[in-house]
Design a protein that fits this description.
239 residues, alpha/beta, Rossmann fold, six-stranded mixed β-sheet, 10 strands, globular, binds adenosine-5'-triphosphate, binds magnesium ion
């Protein structure tokens, strides 16, 4: 198995609190891995470690075989896209929001590029002039994903991006994730509280609790956990 990310005994401590506790494991390249676990398990913290917003207190993270500490921060953020549930937008048009990642690095986004990006997330070109305030929750998330695609990331980190959406929008985003994974050959890690989503969309699953990785492997593991803790967690969540 080729590895996109490797964690080697990673710790992250904030003051007296150990948030990530000696986590080791690897994320398969080109696959969709879902990251599940109870609230406070450290899932979002792991994402922040992966794109360099915070650094491990101990241990190391390898991105495509190279220590995360050897990457230049802007290069790291181009390689690893991050989309959040809140999908933070600037006030203004869709085009303005889509241009943002390029403007940060002093480049411009052309209309053609913008249209290609929109169509890659199944949004109509006519949306470009619209104010982001007028977008639906689903459209907002698609725009947020389009924005991460600008830098042609190798790895996409998606943090609960469907949790506030209705069933139809959820399904559309699920289809989009699978399509992006295949078309652009992007490794995807997806935090979700929805275990149906985790088993259906994920090739692999990681279960985290208390800052530790308890189980990982083919996402079918969620139907047949090996540890009592995960069994209890899964039982509560599938209901
Ligand atoms: N900057 C911080 N300072 C102190 N504690 C923090 C910080 N960030 C996160 N934590 C704590 O670390 C633990 C893990 O938080 P994290 O947000 O990673 O969990 P999560 O698995 O993403 O949870 P959720 O499913 O609710 O999003 C929590 O107990 C949280 O309160
Ligand atoms: Mg979180």
């Amino acid at each position: 198995m080729e590895k996109a990310i490797e964690f080697h005994h990673v710790y992250y401590t904030d003051g007296p609190t150990e948030i990530i506790r000696g986590l080791s494991g690897s994320i398969a390249k080109g696959k969709i891995t879902t990251l599940v676990g109870p609230s406070g398990a450290g899932k979002t913290t792991l994402f922040r470690l992966c794109n360099g917003l915070i650094s491990p207190t101990k241990g190391d993270i390898l991105i495509e075989g190279k220590s995360i500490q050897s990457y230049e921060p802007t290069l790291l953020r181009r390689k690893i896209g991050l989309a959040l549930q809140s999908a933070t937008m600037l006030s203004g048009t869709v085009f303005k929001n889509l241009s943002l990642p390029k403007e940060i690095i002093g480049e411009r986004l052309t209309k053609d590029e913008a249209n290609t990006l929109l169509s890659s997330v199944s949004l109509k070109p006519s949306l470009l002039k619209k104010n982001v305030k007028e977008l639906s929750g689903g459209e907002r998330q698609k725009l947020s994903i389009a924005r991460t695609l600008i830098n042609r990331p190798k790895i996409l980190l998606l943090d609960e991006i469907t949790s506030s959406l209705d069933r139809i929008s959820k399904q559309e985003i699920e289809e989009l994730i699978v399509r992006i994974n295949k078309e652009f050959n992007v490794t995807i890690i997806w935090i979700t509280h929805n275990l149906r989503q985790a088993t259906q969309i994920g090739d692999e699953a990681w279960v985290m609790m208390n800052g530790e990785l308890l189980e990982s492997g083919n996402s079918n593991l969620l139907f047949n956990p090996q540890t009592e803790q995960v069994r209890r967690f899964v039982k509560g969540e599938f209901q």
